[in-house]
């Protein structure tokens, strides 16, 4: 069910009333796959009735099949709220179930001579795309996201944010991007594109051209359980191959993996590690980085093809691949060599320790 209210509505009051009648059953009749999908922090594809309010009125455009709410528009469904300067709900005719009789066409559309809305369209339509324009803010009790433009695909359960100052926050990480932010509800996956930076709630920082963060669909793991190897999630149709979960759970789950692609930079307390691609395992607190790897500590530099970075200890280990040699530049009187323990070393630029003199 979709309920729409126009606060202080102008002459579009009748259009708003028509919109209410048109969409009374549309969202409730959304595709079954979206309803059965896993509950996620920012997931507008299921969760009960939708309530849309606005200060500037609600307009129903039959030719373009849109319902538009303007000025301080808000859409609420379950624990998810979407706000923006303008909200646009795109609708379409529902596809008839296999073997079902086609829905009879309405006698007329719009309003009759008496100014009353015809009922022929009620229950025959479904919203497939919700857009938010201007000062977009999407939030739940635990997660938030901001952008200039937002689009939520009901069929795929995918949110895409574009514009300036793109940001998403969850209980386990904060991610920012320059080009776009995506949230794939069914895959439990957030994608940040363009100068992407992810910072975990433990202070780990990863930057890259593209970052992909995967979360545990069933919430935080039991810390006593050993970490398991994860793989990149495949794009599967909504509702297929998914285990049941609590649709009322607002938590997005524990961060279980981060993939970094292009111009990767990982910073520890003592080193800067750069490469072409990386995988971070939060359970082990270790990153594996590959492709033109460069480890820098002060003026000391090591280069190679692959490295393991222990984010907890701040120690990186350069790995040799086949016949490829590991190279390094060690500057005298500098801090410890990359990959060596951080304790007991002189400060960068400080004097080297004097050798004891014999008597």
UniProtKB/TrEMBL annotation:
Gene3D superfamilies: Lipopolysaccharide (LPS) transport protein A like domain. InterPro entries: LPS_export_LptA, OstA-like_N. Keywords: Signal. Residues 59-166, 179-314 form the Organic solvent tolerance-like N-terminal domain. It holds the Pfam family LptD_N. Residues 216-225 have a biased composition (Polar residues). Residues 97-110, 226-244, 338-359 have a biased composition (Low complexity). Residues 1-39 form the signal peptide. One of its GO terms (cellular component) is outer membrane-bounded periplasmic space. GO terms for molecular function: glycolipid transfer activity. Transmembrane segments: none annotated. GO terms for biological process: lipopolysaccharide transport. The keyword Signal applies. Residues 93-120, 216-254, 333-359 are annotated as: Disordered. This is Organic solvent tolerance-like N-terminal domain-containing protein. It comes from Acidisoma silvae.
């Amino acid at each position: 069910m979709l309920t729409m209210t126009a606060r202080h509505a102008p002459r579009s009051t009748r259009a708003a009333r028509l919109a209410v009648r048109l969409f009374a059953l549309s969202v409730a009749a959304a595709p079954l796959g979206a309803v059965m999908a896993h509950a996620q922090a920012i997931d507008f594809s299921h969760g009960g009735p939708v309530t849309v309010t606005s200060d500037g009125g609600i307009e129903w455009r039959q030719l373009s099949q849109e319902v538009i709410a303007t000025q301080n528009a808000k859409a609420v469904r379950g624990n998810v709220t979407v706000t923006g300067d303008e909200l646009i709900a795109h609708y379409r005719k529902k596809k008839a179930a296999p073997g079902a009789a086609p829905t009879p066409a309405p006698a007329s559309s719009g309003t009759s001579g008496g100014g009353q809305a015809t009922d022929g369209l009620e229950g025959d339509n479904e919203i497939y795309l919700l857009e938010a324009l201007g000062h977009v803010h999407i939030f739940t009790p635990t997660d938030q996201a901001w952008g200039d433009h937002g689009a939520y695909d009901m069929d795929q359960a995918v949110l895409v944010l574009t514009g300036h100052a793109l940001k998403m926050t969850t209980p386990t990480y904060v991610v920012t991007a320059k080009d776009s932010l995506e949230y794939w509800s069914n895959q439990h996956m957030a994608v940040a594109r363009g100068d992407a930076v992810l910072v975990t709630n433990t202070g780990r920082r990863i930057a890259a051209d593209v970052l992909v963060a995967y979360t545990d669909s069933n919430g935080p793991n039991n810390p006593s359980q050993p970490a398991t190897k994860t793989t990149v999630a495949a794009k599967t149709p909504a509702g297929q191959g998914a285990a049941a979960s609590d649709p009322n759970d607002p938590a997005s789950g524990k961060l279980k993996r981060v993939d970094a692609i292009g111009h990767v930079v990982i910073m520890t307390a003592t080193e800067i590690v750069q490469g072409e691609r990386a995988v971070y395992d939060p359970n082990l607190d270790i990153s594996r980085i590959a492709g033109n790897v460069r480890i820098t500590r002060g003026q000391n530099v090591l280069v190679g093809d692959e490295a393991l970075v222990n984010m907890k200890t701040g120690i990186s280990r350069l790995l040799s691949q086949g016949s490829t040699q590991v190279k390094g530049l060690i500057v005298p009187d500098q801090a410890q060599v990359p990959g060596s323990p951080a304790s007991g070393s002189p400060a960068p630029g400080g004097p080297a320790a004097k050798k004891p003199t014999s008597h």
